[in-house]
Known about the structure:
By secondary structure, this protein is mainly beta. Helices cover 3% and strands 50% of the residues. The chain is built from one helix and 14 strands; from the N terminus they run βββββββββββββαβ. The chain has one helix at 164-169, and strands at residues 13-14, 16-23, 27-37, 40-49, 65-75, 82-94, 99-106, 113-117, 123-126, 130-133, 135-137, 146-151, 153-160, 175-178. The strands form three sheets. Strands 5-4-7-2-10-9 form a six-stranded antiparallel beta sheet, with no helix packed on it. A four-stranded antiparallel beta sheet has the order 1-8-12-11, with no helix packed on it. It is globular, with a radius of gyration of 15 Å. The N and C termini lie close together (8 Å).
Amino acid sequence: VTSTLAALDGINSGGGLFFDMAAVGDFVQVDRIDARMLSGTHTVELWTVVDRTSHIGKETNSALWTRQGVTTVTVAAAASDTVVSLFSNLRIVLEPGGVQGCYIISTSGGFPFSYDFGTQGMSYASNSVVELRTGSRSDTPWVITITGRSADIQVRARYNSSTPDAIAENFSGGSGILAPAGPLSHLSDGNHP
């Protein structure tokens, strides 16, 4: 599942972004999250809501979240505003119709994450497998700076109609990348137009 959001050239950037991922039909395992980032060296954390629900209403209470990973990435000035691999080998499983609130934050300061504008809680990128929902910008950990921001991220997910275990062990569905559809382009992986 591929779509490309036009480069934002650093016009809109934040230190952290809340967003939701939702399974449209089948069980979904998100195994990779990438983000469009500005130049510099950034230490990035990924957090998810413990009770596997939306991030909305939970943004300021870190006790409701669990850290999934931390990574340090360097984006060269010449490669500024490019998609950077942040977290791979994830195993975030969404049940059919399930929602998972997420939070990516640069703990090294700065405003490295590109975003676009949207309506909080509304879908801004989707296909027949998974959708991304608009959240909030957060420049200080666990503080909302402004709502209605769509993270410029890519999510790689696997899907299967039977069980979460079948995703990891007997994967027979498809896989692909879902990214925001900024100026819209196609979403397709050959299996799910």
